[in-house]
Design brief:
With 181 residues, this protein is an alpha+beta fold. It is built from six helices and five strands, in the order E-E-E-H-H-H-E-H-H-E-H. It is 36% helix and 15% strand. It has a three-stranded antiparallel sheet with strand order 1-2-3, sandwiched between helices. The chain has a two-stranded parallel sheet with strand order 4-5.
Length: 181
């Protein structure tokens, strides 16, 4: 996989980053506490690549859709080309299923695991989603733990960010944290 470049862009939840190759989007970085950390996370994932002054038209279209989605519009990113060269076959299968979850809806880790062969794969599904290179495009925030609990979220802000994204999309999450969560 040859990553061509990356760009930063503003959204309703902060400044995000996106990197691309000639085959599709390679990485999507949700906001870090500052731009330096966002750039560092992109470099960690993609190596030493140049920041584009202006992304190509097809990447700008993806950015515009992400900005709209995070801004509350009903945008479906299921058709965005993603370069998954660096992921395992199991991860790819998890991401394909996850991309079918429409905005405002959720599945559980167990739901995805069942589609892959059995609920006992739930932990592996969670691990795959924790390594998701293109959050929002592969909407891992739409995957919940058993009982409607939010489960984990590896982006900056963790579960708070996940719940914020779900709220923006209009998903109903019946979750009240307890002392035992």
């Amino acid at each position: 996989m040859t990553v061509q470049s990356y760009a930063l862009f503003d959204t309703a939840i902060g400044r995000c980053g996106i990197a691309w190759s000639d085959r599709g989007i390679v990485a999507m970085q949700l906001p870090q506490p500052n731009e330096t950390q966002t750039r560092a996370r992109i470099a960690q994932r993609c190596g030493d690549i140049a920041e584009a002054e202006a992304p190509p038209h097809h990447v700008q279209a993806v950015i515009d859709d992400i900005v709209a989605l995070i801004g509350g519009a009903q945008v479906d990113l299921a058709d965005v080309a993603v370069d998954m060269e660096g992921v395992t076959e199991f991860q790819r299968q998890v991401y394909v299923i996850t991309r079918t979850i429409p905005p405002g809806q959720t599945l559980s880790y167990g739901d995805i695991a069942k589609r892959l062969g059995g609920v006992e794969l739930s932990r592996e599904v969670g691990q795959a989603l924790g390594r998701n290179p293109v959050p929002i495009i592969v909407p891992c925030h739409r995957v919940l733990a058993a009982g409607g609990k939010p489960g984990g979220f590896s982006a900056n802000g963790g579960v708070v960010t996940k719940l914020k994204l779900l709220e923006i999309e209009g998903a109903i999450v019946n979750y009240t944290p307890s002392l035992f969560d």
